Amino acid sequence: MTDPIVTLDRLRVTFGAGDATVTAVKDVSFSIAPGETVCVVGESGSGKSVTSLSLMRLVEFGGGSIVDGRLTLMRPDGAVDLAQADTATMRGIRGHDIGMIFQEPMTSLNPVFTIERQLTDGLRLHLGLSAAAARDRALALLKEVRIPEPERRLKQYPHELSGGMRQRVVIAIAMACAPRLLIADEPTTALDVTIQAEILALINRLKREKGMAVMFITHDMAVVAQIADRVVVMYRGDVVEEGPVADIFANPKADYTKALLAAVPRLGEMRGKPAPEPLRLVGDDRAPQPLTPAANPEPLLEVNHLTTYFPVRGGPLRRHIANIHAVEDVSFTLNKGETLSLVGESGCGKSSCGRSILRLVEPASGSVILDRKDVLDQNPRDLRRLRRDMQMIFQDPFASLNPYMRLSAQVAEPLRNFGLAAGSELTDRVAALFDRVDLPRSYLRRFPHELSGGQRQRVAIARALAVNPKLIIADEAVSALDVSVQAQVLNLMMELQADLGLSFLFISHDMAVVERVSHHVAVMYLGRIVEIGPRAAIFENPQHAYTRTLLRAVPIADPGTRKLDSDLSFTPIPSPMHDLTYRPAPSTYDTVAPGHLVLRENA
Amino acid sequence: MAYLINRLLSVALTLFLISVITFAVTNILPGDVAMMIMGTQSNPEALAGLRESLGLNDPQIVQYGRWIGGILTGDWGTSLVFKEPIGPLIAQKVTASALIVVMSMTIALVCAIPLGVWAAVHRDRWQDGTASTAALIGVSLPDFFWGIMLILLFARGLGWLPSSGFVHPADDFTLAVRHAFLPSLALGLGLMAHLTRMTRATMTGILGQEFIRVARAKGLSERTVVWRYGLANAIGPVLTVAGLQVGYLFGSIIVVESLFNYTGMGWLTYQALLNRDIPLIQGSVFVIAAVVMLANLAVDLLYTLIDPRIRLA
């Protein structure tokens, strides 16, 4: 094995001072060799980002300090201890010996400078290039990261580029001075799955061609399986396990790694199973109970030709000049006690569809029949009554709970609102709801900030359950949660379905989670359902080109099934904005098998 | 270009509305121009005759048409107090006040931006506390307090600068600036406090953004990161607030110009109000409104040069 480029030895990082000192990284040691990708994996708060920021000594700008340990970087002229290096040395290393990519491509670029300026200032600083030479090099870099029309991009500003293109620019900036170590801190977390696949393939190719060392930080075990050579598992500031990627997945040693891997839904592992079933978590001895649907299921929710537009206004008088066609002629049926998933990439209309059903946004046309009543025909008073039957769980449990209200009051609110309970009965019912979602009753008096993300999402579920709804619309309800917490919340939702006969409309971008929980799946693209059918049909026999694209792009949490050998390039999604005269064609479907419909492409 | 036309159209529309409001309000005030000219003890018949000859008995809309027609053709009428044509009178006073407004704004921006950035860079440390406390004191104390302090210190105490009077810049520029300096400083201190707080708040937000971290990760010096990457993003909001403060300045010059006996727009408006010189009030209010609007238009246009996202919007 070649000598490592960087070696971390007993790194310890703290934040704050005195009594308020928090140790974010306790004792971390590992090394990275040239041409090797080391994935640092862990959940939020594990210290993985702090470790990477320490290597760049950027941790100081966030109020942290490296209190112990050595960070040895091999440079052509000898080894440097990054923990002790002075400011001038560090400036020479940042962007030159070590390049870094961050999570949010939307905010990683300075909005008021051109792409050219942001690409060239590092080149001019570190390599002393002239303006013309730096420009040539910038152009070459944009070509290397395979951005379409690179010449034009140089003159553009960040807001003129899509998220995927921006992340390519950020990678080009990090690669500008041919660094020997590339640190990528969750570089694909904010991206859609097809773009994630493209970016992962790009990083992989650059590593191969340049022989760089890559330190890749992620919380996503599927990404780890796709890109890592070696894996470092972190938990609460410590390394709990380290080893080659195949060993970690096949034969995890640490309890934490085992629990983490058990909680990861893997695309394809539901193959051959007739019904969704909870994940089998570590320490859970019960055999998972599959959610077999009734033999002759009754429909609960029928959505017919649902269409929702958002007006676009412009000009000095804010005239209505165009429409965003968010939901375009969508029809589906959700049975009692079953889960239908709406899956698709950002902007496909899946959330707008969920909101239209509840009339949180007003649809333009169509019908939504819930238990033989048309939601869209109700007057405000009847609609209010009908909303008792349909509740929603939102993505961000930090934003969907009122920070100034006690949890008991928030769960009691829907009951009070509908006058369903009062006095001691109300108290009892709220307490019972807390039991139902496995929250201790001592939490009743707490405020949201005293809970973790998973606990808050349980409160949101309890609140939705309070009025005994028939339908729960879960809009990305587990996307913001760490994987082990996500698994627990998913299991809770499935358990509630089994016990209470709930129907879920499960809106998600995550194919592996969808495969785990759904009876039926609808794939959305540009406001339309392009393919709908039983779960097995969609995952095992996908017919529509877009469904196949999505499934091809999803990383699989299995190092034996790698997909990143060649550069990937998927067709970007066109804009759903059209002028007022645009009349879309109706959605027509071909039946592949009973219940399995595929959108007919209009030539 | 479409943006520019849109903005100019909205300025024209707003000026029209301001002219209507100005005209209406000054006509609702008790006592009319004829009464002002002849006095309250005058002969009712003579008063009626004067009303007729001044056209005060015509419908309001005709009177407004006559007034706005005069404004547009350069005939602004005659001041009752100064017995002078209003157009040239206002033109001269606007020049005097413009000097103060520009100087105080320059003083405020030149001090506030570095101070605000400095406070944001050293957020939650003693530098930030010092700057924030100083700014809070600046915001809390009224302009005339600063005016009195400045007169006591620089005019009475040290004798460096004159404490009152106005010299036209065309006559002697240096002397004009010396006379304008203390009133400008009195106005600038309060303004500076506002803008320091604004700069600090905006910069604090921007320094927490990911692109600042990316800039640092490129190895750029901290000076480049803060003063180029950071300030380029903060300057737009700060200038917008500065533009809005021009309106506040024209309110404040009424007090400050009177204090320094500086004969500018503020002083003129005060005289007009004191003597119910209705034509002069109308002209002054209209001019002040127009200047404030144009200042904001200038800021908006400047913003499009700084922030590329506005250009396409």
Instruction: Give the overall form of chain B.
Output: globular
Helical amount among residues of chain B, as a percent range? over 70%
User: Largest sheet of chain A, described in full?
Assistant: 8 strands, mixed
Q: Regarding quaternary structure, how should these chains be classified?
A: heterodimer
Largest interface: A-B, 35 and 24 residues
Using the coordinates above, name the CATH class of the domain at 6-112 and 177-255 in chain A: Alpha Beta
Give the termini separation of chain A. 56 Å
Q: Which range best describes the helical content of chain A: under 10%, 10-25%, 25-40%, 40-55%, 55-70% or over 70%?
A: 25-40%
What is the tally of helical segments of chain A? 19
Q: Can you tell me the CATH topology of the domain at 87-276 in chain B? A: MetI-like fold
State the total count of DSSP E strands of chain A: 23
Number of strands of chain B: 0
CATH class of the domain at 87-276 in chain B: Mainly Alpha
Overall mean pLDDT score of chain B? 85
**Overall mean pLDDT score of chain A?**
89
What is the CATH topology assignment of the domain at 6-112 and 177-255 in chain A? Rossmann fold
Membrane topology (chain A): Peripheral membrane protein
Subcellular location (chain A): Cell inner membrane
Main location (chain A): membrane
Keywords (chain A): ATP-binding, Cell membrane, Membrane, Nucleotide-binding, Transport
Topology:
The complex is a heterodimer of chains A (603) and B (313).
Chain A (H helix, E strand, L loop, with lengths): L5 E10 L6 E11 L4 E5 L6 H8 L8 E12 L2 E4 L5 H7 L4 E4 L13 H13 L3 H14 L5 H6 L7 H13 L5 E5 L7 H18 L2 E6 L2 H7 L2 E6 L2 E7 H6 L4 H8 L36 E16 L4 E17 L3 E5 L6 H9 L6 E6 L2 E2 L5 H7 L3 E4 L13 H11 L5 H14 L16 H13 L5 E5 L7 H18 L2 E6 L2 H7 L2 E6 L2 E7 H6 L4 H9 L23 E3 L9 E5 L2 E4 L4
Parallel strand pairs in A: 3-8, 3-9, 6-7, 7-8, 13-18, 13-19, 16-17, 17-18
Antiparallel strand pairs in A: 1-2, 1-4, 4-5, 9-10, 11-12, 11-14, 12-21, 14-15, 19-20, 20-23, 22-23
Chain B lengths: L1 H27 L4 H6 L5 H11 L5 H14 L12 H36 L4 H15 L2 H15 L15 H35 L2 H8 L4 H38 L5 H10 L3 H29 L1 H5 L1
Helix pairs in contact in B: 1-12, 5-6, 5-8, 5-10, 6-8, 7-8, 7-10, 8-10, 9-10, 10-11, 10-12, 11-12
